[in-house]
Design goal:
By secondary structure, this protein is α+β, with helices and mostly antiparallel strands. The protein has two domains: 2-140, no CATH class; 145-298, Hedgehog/Intein (Hint) domain (Endonuclease - Pi-scei, Chain A, domain 1, Beta Complex), CATH 2.170.16.10. Helices cover 15% and strands 36% of the residues. The protein is built from four helices and 22 strands. It has helices spanning 2-23, 55-67, 75-80, 160-165; strands at residues 42-45, 81-84, 87-90, 96-101, 110-111, 115-120, 123-125, 133-140, 145-146, 150-153, 156-159, 170-174, 185-195, 200-209, 214-217, 222-224, 230-232, 241-243, 249-262, 264-269, 278-281, 284-287. The strands form seven sheets. Strands 1, 4, 5, 8, 9, 12, 13 and 20 form an eight-stranded mixed β-sheet that branches.
Length: 315
């Protein structure tokens, strides 16, 4: 009798959950997030208290948010897939919805679903959500620039925070056919800026170079090496070189690590080839935010060759 009772209780719970989902309006509660929802050129960087380390965790959040009718179902594939060289492929890191208490003065405290109720890839979650919780953003993992770092736009260098605030879309990047021997540039178009929703405690690396250059970024930020590969900033050491916008090398003399409460930023162009996703910041060649998401698997491979003859990714 005890076993039957437990089975009955489980069936009732499952039926209640199913009834909740099937009798609810087909329209999701939210159609867009608070941050970036009505701004087509802004994505939100993942907040530290809602940062997942695996795609399984991200998928569980996506399935919960879609299954509980909090976000549009059509976004699931967008968060999990991307187009690479004209082919639809799985993202290296899934994007996912992030929720928070609607309190800007308190820096939007992170809210997460409670266990129990809807079964997903990572367990069961309750569909209940307090009235004061909002869909804050779509979380995107990114290595970034400090807000004052200047990126090259068609009109000249601007702090990336200013370029974002002005919604400046005329980003200068390498042309798809550029090589080390011919660093041709083009005026590209910004697809998205990636921005911290709130100031958070960040680890920053400040590179000082032999010829007076200075660049401050987070450890995962993508930089071009002297060999034409893209590497994380944390992989560089004193004695390595950053690549300047004329192709010359500038030796790193010091790397200072600091902890600061700041907002950080990054950017990506509309183009999706590997070379034109290289831009200029503080006079040095940097990878766009794509190298922290869909192109992350190409870190360490040659994307910028010495001479013409086809720009390809070298295995």
């Amino acid at each position: 009798m005890r076993t039957s009772s437990r089975v009955f209780t489980s069936l009732v719970t499952a039926s209640a959950t199913l009834l909740q989902l099937t009798t609810a309006s087909a329209a999701p509660k939210y159609t867009s997030p608070r941050i970036g929802g009505t701004d087509p050129v802004t994505n939100a960087r993942c907040m530290s208290q809602d940062l997942f380390s695996t795609n399984a965790q991200a998928l569980a959040r996506i399935e919960w948010a879609v299954g509980c009718l909090y976000v549009p179902a059509k976004l699931k594939e967008k968060w999990m897939k991307t187009v690479e060289n004209g082919v639809v492929v799985e993202r290296q890191f899934y994007s996912y919805p992030s929720f928070a208490v609607d309190d800007a003065a308190a820096s939007y405290p992170t809210w997460k679903p409670e266990p129990g109720g809807l079964t997903t890839a990572a367990g069961s979650f309750n569909c209940a959500m307090p009235d004061n919780v909002i869909w804050l953003s779509v979380c995107e993992a990114a290595g970034c620039y400090r807000a004052d770092q200047r990126i090259l736009m068609e009109s000249g260098y601007k702090p990336i925070s200013v370029a974002h605030e002005q919604r400046d879309l005329s980003l200068v990047t390498l042309s798809p056919s550029a090589t080390f021997g011919d660093l041709a540039f083009t005026v590209n178009t910004v697809d998205k800026y990636t921005v911290s929703p709130i100031p958070e405690l960040e680890t920053l690396l400040t590179f000082q170079t032999e010829h007076g250059g200075k660049l401050t970024v987070t450890p995962l930020h993508p930089l071009v090496t002297k060999d034409g590969t893209i590497e994380k900033a944390s992989q560089f050491v004193v004695g390595d070189s950053l690549v300047k916008d004329d192709g010359s090398l500038d030796t790193i003399e010091t790397i200072a690590t600091s902890r600061e409460v700041v907002k950080v930023y990054n950017v990506q162009p509309t183009t999706k080839d590997f070379v034109s996703n290289v831009l200029v910041a503080e006079g040095f060649l940097n990878g766009s935010v794509r190298y922290q998401n869909e192109y992350q698997k190409y870190l360490g491979r040659v994307v910028l060759r010495e001479a013409r003859g086809g720009i390809k990714v070298q295995d």
